[in-house]
Every structure is written in structure tokens, then in C-alpha cells.
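Dear Dr. L.,

I hope this message finds you well. Following up on our conversation about the binding site, I have prepared a predicted three-dimensional model of the protein together with 2-acetamido-2-deoxy-beta-D-glucopyranose. For your records, I am including the exact sequence and ligand specification that went into the calculation, followed by the C-alpha cells. Please feel free to forward this to your student if that is useful.
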Amino acid sequence: MKFVKLITVLQGLLFGNEAISYSNETLREHHNNLGNCGVDKSPISVVYEGIGKIETYPWLGVLIYPSNDKRYITSVVLVTRQIVIASAMDIDKLPKQDFRARSRVVLGQNCSNPGIRVKDYSYHPDYNINTYSTLALIQLETNYLMTYLQPICAPPRALDRPRFYVMTIDDCKRSTIKIHKMAYVDPEQCKIFYKRTELDIEKMWPTHSVCAKALTGVECVWSSGAALVLRQNNKWSLIGLGIYGPGCKAPSRFLEYSQYKPWILNSIARIGRPTVSRISTSHIILRRSLSNVQRYGPCDPEEVKAELFTDRTKIERGPTYKKQRVRYNFTIFSNLEYSCVVFRVYHYKRAKWFKDKPYIRLKRWCQSPKPICYSFQLLQIDFAVEIFFKESVVYQVMAYGREVRLIDMKKLMGRVNARKPYPPVVVGAD
Ligand SMILES: *[C@@H]1O[C@H](CO)[C@@H](O)[C@H](O)[C@H]1NC(C)=O
Ligand SMILES: *[C@@H]1O[C@H](CO)[C@@H](O)[C@H](O)[C@H]1NC(C)=O
Ligand SMILES: *[C@@H]1O[C@H](CO)[C@@H](O)[C@H](O)[C@H]1NC(C)=O
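The resulting structure of the complex is given below.
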């Protein structure tokens, strides 16, 4: 156990990332932040409705992305020392040219402050499939020196005369936020309201929602990313994150944070494991990073900026009308960050009578029994690429990423392997 911790700390230092977690202990530490969550800097315990200062709430902030012609600003909430959450739609609509390189997240300060760099981002798996109303997580380029980062707490298990508020960023440059007192709305009442007002659009319903409405206040409309928070025992907890609302005094839906929390914890725990996204039968994308959160889906422009290698092979066969299979081994190494590895196969000649599209599959080769393969993140990982086809095809691999220069991987692996007996080779599942 001690040894595992040492590695975690080592990696934390070397990658500037504290969250490569091997044990529950580390995870718990991260989420609860040693009980230091949900603080505010107000000298009084009364919360006034109306205008407040962002400096009071260190977990409230914005993501700023300066594009060529425009400066985009989106609300975020800090939920762990390295993760802020935002509305998936808000993040998705931002152009993705150098998104990570140019974006900054400013927390508990006005936007004239420099902010923290963005390491990566990822959408909840619901996004685009079940609903547009879901969360995006943004991983910050934080390190062990940034002890001033103070996330909001997860919702408490038991409510003790809670007071709900919604906080929205009013004017980021002038440090102002808006605070509304809220009342909880029963889910049935909420549904009825949306049906009656014809705002009941299937794809806009979050998978998990809480409903609340503003008690008082001027006419207003929630912007997405409004934080539904509660204060209990002098601590602030995040209950929900707003989606575009019909009007502050109408029942409004918020993404229920407690239901998304496991996804966030998993995203942190799975750092270092590869992900495979199937784009089509003949197109697969593999990613693997030792320090970034897992991502799925097509490569964004920033992920394909640095080429590691490419390969293009023509496989001549047929026409035999019999299915052929070709198998390649593909190994990803721990000294490289694979932001996107694209596997594609297509017919060498385009002909109308080619009915059967070629099919590509990635299979994991596990060098050790499963528990080690899936929990241990430093080893190289082997894949078998299988291609099924009838006519001549072209097989293409394009790997993008960067070399990891900060860490002496050999030394580290040597030390780690000294503790592990080398188990026999077994074939892993897909
Ligand atoms: C981690 O937590 C899970 C569920 O919370 C539990 O089943 C498991 O035994 C824990 N593992 C360790 C090493 O504590
Ligand atoms: C913005 O923040 C900076 C540094 O925290 C501070 O010096 C400045 O006065 C703030 N501006 C406003 C308008 O509050
Ligand atoms: C792929 O790797 C496995 C295990 O290391 C090996 O048994 C197999 O022969 C390799 N296949 C090819 C085509 O190199």
C-alpha cells in the first residue's frame, strides 16, 4: 500500500497531476479534499439575494476561450481539485482550434486574472445519444502547489433545513454574480409544467434532473451552467447545474449532480487506461494518456496536431467472395501520450458491386491476468487489429500524440516490476 502511494505521489510530481489514483483512499481524499470543500470567504453567515462577489465563492468560475474573433465565456463549478464541470452543450459549441492551449479557467476571481490552463475535456456518455442536456468535465492543469483550489462539496446525505440558491455569473470582469433564493419543485409538477407549456422536448430532458424555481426576483432566464447550491452547516454543496430555463420563477431543470458524481470519480480513476471509440464499421479511434481524463468520439483538431507515425498498407485479395481476415499487432507504449490513433480500412477500388464493407476490430492482448491488466497503468498495452474483407483494401494507421519527456519511465517500471511476479500470457476480451 505504501509503495502504491509513493508511485502516485511520484507521478503527481512528474506529471503535475495529482489524480492518477490507484486506491480508494486517494480517490476519497480527492473528492472530500480533507474536509475542506464548500467554503466561502464571507465574514457573515447570512446569504443575501441579489448581487454578490465572485471572490466570496472559490469554487465558482468561468472558462474563457479566446478564439480568433471572439472571446467565449462559460460558467463552471470546481468539483474536485482538478475537475470543473460545465454544460456539455456550452462546451461543444465552442470552436475547438487549440481549445486546450488557449482556454483558461478562472475560479473565485474576476476574469482579468490569468486563470488555470485546461488539460483536457470530456462529455458524459449520454451526450448526443440520449440527451443534449448533460455535463462536460474539464480537467485543469493543476499541480500539488495549487493548494488554494477549494472545490464545492458533494450533496449531503441528509438535509437539515436546507436553503437553496442559484448562483450565476453576472459580469465576470467586474467580479459580480447573481444570487437567487430557490424553492424545490416536485418532479411531477415539473413534468406537468413542461408538458403544459409545450417545452417538453424529449432530447432536452436530462437523464437525471432536479427541479427548482426562484422565490422572488425580477424577470430573468437562466443561462446554462447556473449553479444550484445549498448551504448547510457552513458548507456549500452542489445540487445541480442549470440548463437553459424557461424563466427564473418558472420550474427549471438542473442536472442532478449527485447522479453524475460517479462518472466524474470514474473519469479520474480511469486515467491511464486506453479508450476505444468505434466511429463506423471501418473506422476506430484509440486513445491513451497517462495523465489526461479518458475521452471518446472523433479526434478534435488539437488532438491531431503532432504526428507520431502513420502507416498505409495495401492488402490485395480476391475477388474470392470469401471473407478474409488479416491480423496485426499494435502496441502502445508508456513513454508516449496517444491523443488519437486512427485505424481505418477502405476498399482499394471503388466499385458499385462491392456490397460488403470491410470491417475492423481491436482486441486487447492481455499480458497478465485481468486485475493487473486493468488496474495497472504503466505497462505497455498490446492490441490485435483484425480486418475482415472480401476485396482488396487499404489499411491505414495514423497515430498522434506526444512523447513524455518528464519521466524516467524505465527506472519507474523497473522499480514497479520488481514487486510484480510476471504472470503468463492470456488473451483478453474485446
Ligand atoms: C474500493 O471501494 C469499493 C466500493 O466502494 C470496494 O468494493 C473495494 O473493496 C475498495 N477497495 C479497496 C482497496 O479499499
Ligand atoms: C480583479 O481582480 C484583481 C486581482 O484579484 C483585482 O486587483 C482587481 O481590482 C479586480 N477587479 C475588479 C473590478 O474587481
Ligand atoms: C501478436 O502478438 C501475439 C502475442 O504477443 C503473438 O502470439 C502473435 O503471433 C502476434 N501476431 C503477429 C501477427 O505478429
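In brief: The longest strand covers residues 336-347.

With kind regards,
A. P.
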